[in-house]
Amino acid sequence: MEKIKVYHYDAFSKIPNKGNPAGVVLDSNALTSEEMQKIALEVGFNETAFFMKSDKADLRLRYFTPGHEMNLCGHATMAAIYALKTKGYLGERQELTIETKAGILPIHISDKEDPIYITMKQAPPEFKEFQGSKERLASALGITKEDLDPGLPILYGSTGTWTLLVPIRKLGTFSSMKPDTQTFPSILTEMPGSSIHPFCLETYHKDMDMHARHFSSPYSGTIEDPVTGTASGVMGAYYASHIRNLSNVTLSVEQGQEIGRDGKVEVRILKRANTYDVEIVGTAVYVKEFYCSR
After folding, report:
1. Interior/surface letters 66-84, b for 16+ CB within 10 angstroms, e for the rest
2. Position 224 pLDDT exceeds 80
């Protein structure tokens, strides 16, 4: 049986075994969707990125959780682009486009620094109202309704992947969260496949602006995403549109502290007409390589 090489990178961290682990497969043109899904299940990370040729952009990326394919994944994009750049696939290029199921998105690589930093533009943000029970939502997170911030709306948000943005009053609440992910679809009736992204404005690190955790949809086959790129992006758009009413802001977002995977995402928001440009900036670090069955 043919073996496929998978590279393990940790995104949004300079330190191995911090940030968010992602699998990266560098030559996926001959793989079927079923084979990619099988490999992602065997890898077991929240996402594995598969690199292939594109006739619409400079390259194409597909993203698979252990349970299903995703339209877009921020941390797996960081990992894949970091791998392609450091292994010489991109030469001296600093600007490129990637084809994803969320659209064709531009990437900028700042390779004059060590480590390399990657800027990824996301899809325009979308928001939809959550109309479900706040009591049941809080219970599904292992907290109470009183822990929710009553001054901010609970909204579904997407810059390529939908998540439920849940404002929390106090930082201390996050360490006691124990999600019952199997109940998510029955609570998120408007979008049963959505993940849940609780956040607050208190932080562990003084130089950070927001703190969050990210709990996966049960269909993904995982429980928690340590440091999320797409959710951080739409959370930044939420900050600009629903918290501070800003047209231009750069935020530093922390995540992963409660599970020992401390990571950082920079989020840049710029208002344009009736929408926002959303960019995330981060790096990655090589951890190891291994093989999976095709």
Report:
1. bbeebbbbbbbbbbbbbbb
2. yes
